[in-house]
Hints:
heterodimer, A: alpha+beta, two-stranded antiparallel ribbon, about 55% helix, B: 10 strands, globular, disordered N terminus
Amino acid sequence: MFGRLLWSLLRSSRGRLVVAILALASGGAVISALLNLEADVQRKLAHEFRTLGPNLIVQPAGAGTMGSAGAPSLLDQRAIRSVEAAKIAGAAFAPYLYVVAQAEGHSIVVAGTWLDTAPLLAPWWKLIAGNWISSRDNQGQCLLGRDAARALRAGPGAQLQLQAGNRSLRVVVEGIFESGGDEDGQIFTALDAAQSLAGLPGKISVIAVSVPGATSQTEEAERKLVTALPQGEIRPVRQLNEAQNELASRLHLLIVSMVVLILALTVLCVLGTMAALAVERRHDVALMRALGGSVSCVVGLFLAEAAAMGAASGLIGYLAGIFLARWIGWRVFDAPISPRWQILPLTIALMTAVALAGALPLQLLGKVRPAEVLRGEA
Amino acid sequence: MTSSGNSHRGVLLDVRGLSRRFGEVLALDDVSFQVRGGEWIAIMGPSGSGKTTLINILGGLDSASRGNAFVDGMDVAALSEKELTRYRAEKVGLVFQQFHLVAYLTALENVMLAQYLHSIADEKDARRALERVGLGDRLDHRPSQLSGGEQQRVAVARALINQPNLILADEPTGNLDDANERIVLDLFRELHAQGNTILMVTHNPPVGALADRDIRLEHGRLAVDAELAAREHKL
Lengths: 378, 235
């Protein structure tokens, strides 16, 4: 009979309930979208921040800055295997050896690296002429930064003679890129070629590591690298990590504040509808009380109605929130926000709580005096 | 639908010095009378004489300022709110002038509502109760689809479904036309014949004349408590 009564109650005030459900479902949709966003924002931020470059640098112990050719301390190339052995999930990395060489009468920095990987670690590099190099070991080719290309008056296909001390290297320009940074003035060659040019076989200056995920994952990766590379020094790119942390915590605060605000606004919306409903239901409550219904039984019935409404709205809101989250994802991150099923019970619970809080006027129905209401005096 | 506790002819209701004051107004003033099980009592009197106040106190809807009202040995005037709720569910069946059916429930559900508030709803019993008042073909009709007489018969079926000791009816025919009034009064006559104890407030002397006894209130005081003439002289 409880279910039958509940169903009849829900059908009896369809107009008002539709208004309340609309308010609750709208609130639920925004909350569900925000919670989905909150759950995904760390991943999205990490993704965005990884496009700003590596967030960990492995350098020789005691080196305050990046080394250059001739710098007193260099890493042994075996450090690359140690980074691999650290098994950092999803991490990408590339070794670098920096050499100062002479080319066409200009003094220029030559960076020996994995030519297929370096551009991937710096997604903001923009190819302005020629092609990227897809082979890691191609010793005869190089990439030229925009400023270096201008200084050397070299375009794709041009041959360059690099000289470091009494060692020389001949390379062909495969592509010219623009980075907006120091790399614009550098020449990028294969690691082996740079090592030969510098006369430092098996040596590297640094390893740049890009760790995906939240800052906690970066910290975990840092711990693993410290253990794996006792001879090296692990330097987090603090500005990046701190900016990511800062932005994540600001977004978290913003989302939590908005969820609380929306919950409060939804309660207010529902409160108005429920107050009108309470006036409508006074007679029924008085009658049920007169027929021997206890306050808890009668008011409980009406609160169950509110709870059912809240739960249904939570479900509708969650589904609508998925679309909203996807739209926000495309607009803000250029990628969809993945819906999380864990948000469903949370949205339903929140909207049920909101409906019950908004149903406060219905609780006042417990104070109805049946004799007065049934006589039409109250 | 015979009431469980009414088969005896002992005192079912014992009202002693019952008073009810609303501010300065004394709505009931030291009213005392007794009702035996199975009796039909008409409570009469002019407007404002305290009839409805008396019915409300006996129905557990209002409390007395002074005095006692024993129903089946239980002093209604001394019951707590929680006890009054159980009392209303178990001991009395209320029939109102305005019918007071729940508009969005069917006739069957209106009767089942009283069962649900008492203990457990039993659709078969509710269906039988409506068949007894001649509404077997109106089970799924909502109040708006029923005539006034039919609505009042649903209210009577609802009042009787939990087998109360006492049926309290406040002007049950006050809103009915002559034809429906006759149908409803026939129903009460039948209930009385089955041994139900009925207290009925009425303004209408011919309706009052159907009762075994006539209790008249004036200005809140008991003016007349008279055994009525033999049944053959009634309507």
